[in-house]
Amino acid sequence: MSDVRQHADDIHDQFSDHIDVSVDDVEERLTTLVDEYKVPIDEARRSVTNHYLEEAGLEREDISQGGSEEVNVEDVDEPEQWIDLTAKVIELWDPRSDSVAQVGLLGDPTGTIKFTKWAKSDLPSLEEGAVYDLRNVVTDEYQGRYSVKLNSTTVIEELDEDLEVGDDTSEIEGALVDMQSGSGLIKRCPKEDCTRVLQNGRCNEHGEVEGEFDLRIKAVVDDGIDAHEVIFDKEATEDLTGLSLEEAKDMAMDALDTTIVADEIAADIVGTYYRIEGPTFGRYVLADDVEELDGPADAEQLLIRARSM
Ligand SMILES: [Zn+2]
């Protein structure tokens, strides 16, 4: 069976109880998107599914999910995918909405991911520390962070085993194509456990405060496929630029301007190739281990492409 036919079959199975549609109809829609409009098959599948949801007057949660795929946490990189996970409940948090029954963090050997279980899905309670086989969960994305949602079609089976949970480490190799605002010599709120970056001398939480200087870089690194946001803390910034916090403060003092530090750093690093390794925190990679590389010959091309994104 062809790939498109297989997807058509899956979609047909989901809707055959609700509307009068043939596998051929579904396949034709998919084929048009894939062949004529060059839409990737996953996207075509989503689009065609949405079409039939609308036609049937159904919500996504209402349809049965055949053919969801067993994946690892680190493989979740797209919203609206139906997947199966084997994962341990690391933490449960207090739901902030009545529509949510449980919310927390799941983990497997490849990483961790947030989960939400809808109240109306009427599923059994997950226990902290237990390992589950979760079938038919749907992926979601918010501001670059992925999560999974347990819904009324989800099947939960508790497993009598432990699971080692890994941290999400990323390795990126590519050109540092942009440095974002909030980089260079910054001031942070001095209140305990706050450390928010001040905007014009003000903390979002604590108002006007006497800030403490810090060095940081928020950069965009393009590996040729994706753009990644990378944060360098004080130590990583000092290592990367050879500029210490004290030197940066002196530089800003001499110029009577803190932005000179960011300008100097940007001139030094933008356009350079790096291999960067570190844990991921939401949409950011925290640079732990950085190595400068000789860039490929088409560095200029890459920069032009990156600017046009
Ligand atoms: Zn504060």
Automatic annotation (TrEMBL):
One of its GO terms (molecular function) is DNA binding. It comes from the Archaea. NCBIfam families: PRK07217.1 (NF005553). The lineage of its organism: Archaea, Methanobacteriati, Methanobacteriota, Stenosarchaea group, Halobacteria. One of its GO terms (biological process) is double-strand break repair via homologous recombination. It comes from Haloterrigena salifodinae. Keywords: DNA-binding. This is Replication factor A. InterPro entries: NA-bd_OB-fold, SOSS-B. The keyword DNA-binding applies.
